[in-house]
Amino acid sequence: MTESQSTSAAPERRGFGVDVGGSGVKGGIVDLDTGALIGERFKLPTPQPATPQAVADTVAAVVREFGWEGKLGVTYPGVVTNGVVRTAANVDKAWIGTDVVQIISGALDGQPVTVLNDADAAGLAEERFGAGKDNTGVIVLLTFGTGIGSAVIHNGILLPNTEFGHLEVGGKEAEHRAASSVKDRKEWTYERWTKEVTKVLVAIENAIWPDLFIAGGGISRKADKWVPLLENRTPVVAAALQNTAGIVGAAMAADHDVTH
Ligand code: BGC
């Protein structure tokens, strides 16, 4: 077959995502058709204190490492509406009211930036490319970490800024009851901790009846130790993309702006 006859694959569509976490700011180039990273991730430590300008400068440094010049997506661990941060449960309170799109875009000479909630980004990626890819129903992704993040997705459409971690469950905020940081602090066993997780899942499933829960966050790497102990009704599966979900979901959000 000559070169002109060969069926060359369509060029991959590339995006760029940055995941801002408590300890690291991680970025990478994403193949938007497969959800795979193209090349390695690059990570810089999250500046301390993690003020908006310091984080924006770190995001810019990560982006420049790749020479990326197009639009990009960035996660933030709280509510973001129309590019403005509204909550800061586990981060510096100076973030509240910050026009985070403007400040990051400003650090990047005006490059177009989409900012979305960290769990929302992970949910978009998991639903399309990860643990939810074969499910057509309503998916709720929960991230268990310092707090509890949540994402609700139906057929690729995200309902942004659900904050199930702050639902009151049995007189206590869900994330104060069942984040993985609570397990660590109280030195609970998986058996003890999953009793609390079950209560949170039951509260959510009674309110919105999802078809599937995806459990994310660092503790989902040990999902075999605790997911089988859950006693709620809806199936729960572990996240599949692990530490790339935030980057991939941020790139997806920027590609097809889901924040407006
Ligand atoms: C925040 C969420 C965030 C989650 C995980 C919660 O405390 O309110 O917006 O997704 O922590 O970072």
Model description:
With 260 residues, this protein is of the alpha/beta class. It folds into 2 domains: 14-119 and 244-256, Nucleotidyltransferase, domain 5, CATH 3.30.420.40; 134-239, ATPase, nucleotide binding domain (Nucleotidyltransferase, domain 5). The protein is 31% helix and 26% strand. It contains 8 helices and 14 strands. It has helices at 52-66, 100-107, 118-129, 174-178, 180-186, 190-208, 223-226, 245-255; strands at residues 14-20, 24-31, 37-45, 72-76, 80-81, 84-85, 113-117, 138-144, 148-154, 157-159, 168-169, 172-173, 212-216, 236-238. The strands form 4 sheets. The protein has a 5-stranded mixed beta sheet. Strands 10-9-8-13-14 form a 5-stranded mixed beta sheet. Strands 5-6 form a two-stranded antiparallel ribbon. Strand 1 and strand 2 (24-31) form a beta hairpin. Helix 3 crosses helix 8. The model is unreliable at 1-6 (pLDDT under 50). Bound molecules: beta-D-glucopyranose. The site of beta-D-glucopyranose has 16 residues, from helix 3.
